[in-house]
Design brief:
The complex is a heterodimer of chains A (265) and B (287).
Chain A: E1 15-21, E2 24-32, E3 72-77, E4 80-84, H1 86-92, E5 99-107, E6 116-124, H2 128-141, E7 143-151, E8 154-163, E9 166-172, H3 185-188, H4 195-207, H5 220-233, H6 246-264
Parallel strand pairs in A: 1-5
Antiparallel strand pairs in A: 1-2, 2-6, 3-4, 5-7, 6-9, 7-8, 8-9
Chain B: E1 16-18, E2 23-24, H1 25-43, E3 47-52, E4 62-64, E5 77-82, E6 87-93, H2 97-105, E7 108-114, E8 126-133, H3 139-155, E9 161-164, E10 170-175, H4 182-199, E11 203-204, E12 216-219, E13 228-230, E14 246-247
Parallel strand pairs in B: 11-12
Antiparallel strand pairs in B: 1-2, 3-4, 3-6, 3-7, 5-6, 7-13, 8-10, 8-12, 9-10, 9-14
Helix pairs in contact in B: 1-2
Classes of the chains: A alpha+beta (265), B alpha+beta (287).
């Protein structure tokens, strides 16, 4: 079966440490819980069906460069680089202190989803009591902790919140990574809508209102590709049918008409 | 494209090829599909030369004498030596609807055909009177000369057919039994032209005098090995998207407006004035 089932959380944590709130510590393990399920393909050599490998080739010498001869360059202007050795960058890295430092608590719903990036599930590490305490307090009050973590080489702002009976840590985007749409010219002088029209619009919105349910949306492209993979595995040939575009439809009508006439001859 | 209707992979249907009228390649293909029931019989078994305008009629087009690279294997082609080109050409032959659609999809707005068929390439089965006016002549004058040609042929017991060139002239065509050489058909047309020139001050029968303003040349020179005529029902690369349109002789009269015979109007006509052309091959009385 190629059909993908619900993703499962791995048994191996990607990080372990503790959530620190002032002097209180909650030891936790961190697991990946977001899985990119979009269809991905590998490039193969058409003639023999073998996978291709990628090599780092110097564009001047046209030769593969071994890892030990590779340094990082920051492109300051087109084709002008500032070169860094590994050690230089390492020294600038934030020290990972195995902590998720919580600075304050906010109403969970006050955090704009724009800032949410990637979520990880937290599980208790040895002490379940402290974990349960934090989980229940946040759940009861509808709050989330805002703080920061150093994951590998990067420091992230994070939100610690509750999702389906678990503590979840979601990394946040920095303010400088998010553009401010209110500066758009097109939005500066929007007209006040007509009252009657607004009432109508609001009626449409309330008529179509419902509960949010993400399972109502399915990845139809992925489903089709999965189906094709099944067929290919069974050795069936796949007929490529292109969708008929709107302007081609008229052509097809004319074509059918002409074919009919030619048949009569 | 649904493969049960056509083998052709249609492409760039939105591309505008007649910029003034904003006619797209899709509309051109549609035209050729609609006209196919009348056109296909007239094209059958004839080596074709395409004039392609991939970037529209106001950009340079090109004659495609040889079947282009990537011609699908189901498109019929035939290799023939052309004296006009002085080399062997791999001509496209269009005997079915799919081939005609394929031709149109190449942005071949104009389709030209040789006067001899695949199996009688050296012996033409069409005699071609190209009535070609030199400005300033009115189209009424062209009509007048075409009628003179028709009457002259009629007096010899020959039934001729007429179509607009899609440009400034008229084409009179005589279907014949393919047993005469191009030299003979050419000479025949030249003789008729000379006769008419002696009777009408409008008509010129000598190539050297064709650029005389206000005259009409009955062009006999097209009756040559490998030369072509614009196909009946072919579109022309004119700003009005005109069609080289077969007509009944009784409609060839003063006031005829060839510009009104175009991509939009011609498919609406129920008539097929050239329907019996290929069944009416005649003997040519050569002087």
């Amino acid at each position: 079966m190629v059909k993908s089932s619900e993703p499962r959380i791995s048994k191996r944590p990607i990080w372990s440490g503790r959530v620190t709130i002032g002097l209180v510590n909650v030891p936790v393990k961190l697991f990946t819980m977001i899985f990119d399920k979009s269809v991905s393909f590998r490039f193969l050599h058409k003639q023999d069906g073998q996978p291709l490998k990628y090599e780092r080739v110097c564009i001047k010498e046209d030769k593969v460069v071994p890892w030990e001869d590779i340094v990082k360059g920051y492109e300051v202007a087109k084709n002008q680089f500032v070169v860094f050795e590994k050690e230089e960058l390492k020294a600038a890295r934030p020290e990972s202190d195995q902590r998720i430092r919580i600075d304050k608590f906010v109403d969970f719903l006050s955090v704009d989803p724009i800032y949410l990036d990637k979520s990880y599930v937290l599980t208790p590490d040895k002490s379940e009591d402290a974990y349960s305490l934090l989980l229940n307090a946040l759940h009861g009050m509808g709050k989330a902790g805002v703080g920061r973590i150093t994951l590998r080489t990067k420091e992230y702002p994070v939100l610690v919140h509750v999702y389906k009976g678990a503590l979840v840590m979601t990394t946040l985007r920095y303010a400088y990574e998010v553009a401010d749409p209110s500066k758009l010219e097109e939005l500066k002088d929007l007209k006040e809508p007509d009252k009657g029209q607004l009432t109508l619009a609001e009626k449409i919105v309330s008529d179509l209102s419902g509960d949010f349910d993400i399972t109502e949306y399915e990845d139809t492209y992925k489903e089709k590709v999965d189906e094709l993979i099944e067929k290919k595995l069974k050795g069936e040939t796949i007929v490529v049918t292109k969708p008929v575009k709107e302007e081609a439809k008229e052509l097809m009508v004319a074509l059918q008409e002409t074919l009919k006439q030619l048949k009569k001859k | 494209m649904p493969s049960d209707l056509t083998k052709v992979e249609l492409s760039n249907l939105d591309k505008i090829l007649y910029p003034e009228l904003k006619i797209t390649k899709g509309q051109i293909i549609e035209y050729y599909i609609k006209i196919a029931p009348k056109m296909l019989d007239l094209l059958a078994n004839r080596p074709l030369v395409l004039t392609r305008f991939p970037n529209g009629i106001d950009k340079e087009g090109f004659y495609e004498k040889d079947a282009p690279m990537g011609t699908p294997s189901w498109v019929k082609t035939t290799k023939r030596f052309s004296e006009t080109a002085n080399r062997t050409i791999n001509y496209v032959v269009c005997n079915d609807l799919d081939t005609l659609i394929w031709i149109a999809n190449l942005a071949s707005i104009e389709v030209h055909m040789t006067l001899g068929q695949v199996n009688s390439f050296e012996k033409p089965d069409l005699v071609f009177f190209d009535i070609d006016p030199e400005p300033p002549t009115s189209f009424d004058n062209v009509v007048e000369v075409a009628l003179l040609v028709k009457e002259k042929l009629q007096s010899l017991g020959l039934k001729s057919y007429v179509k607009t060139s899609g440009k400034k002239g008229l084409h009179v065509v005589l279907p014949i039994i393919p047993k005469y050489s191009f030299r003979q058909t050419r000479e025949f047309v030249h003789q008729i032209g000379k006769h008419l020139a002696s009777e009408s001050p409008l008509v010129v029968s000598q190539f050297s005098r064709t650029k005389q303003p206000g005259t009409i040349f009955v062009d006999y020179l097209q009756n040559s090995h490998g030369k072509t005529m614009i196909c009946p029902y072919s579109l022309r690369a004119t700003s009005e998207a005109t069609v080289s349109t077969p007509l009944d002789w009784h409609n060839v009269k003063k006031g005829l407006k060839p510009d009104k015979l175009n991509i939009f109007t011609v498919p609406k006509s129920e008539k097929n004035p050239w329907e019996n052309l290929t069944k009416n091959r005649q003997k040519l009385e050569v002087n």
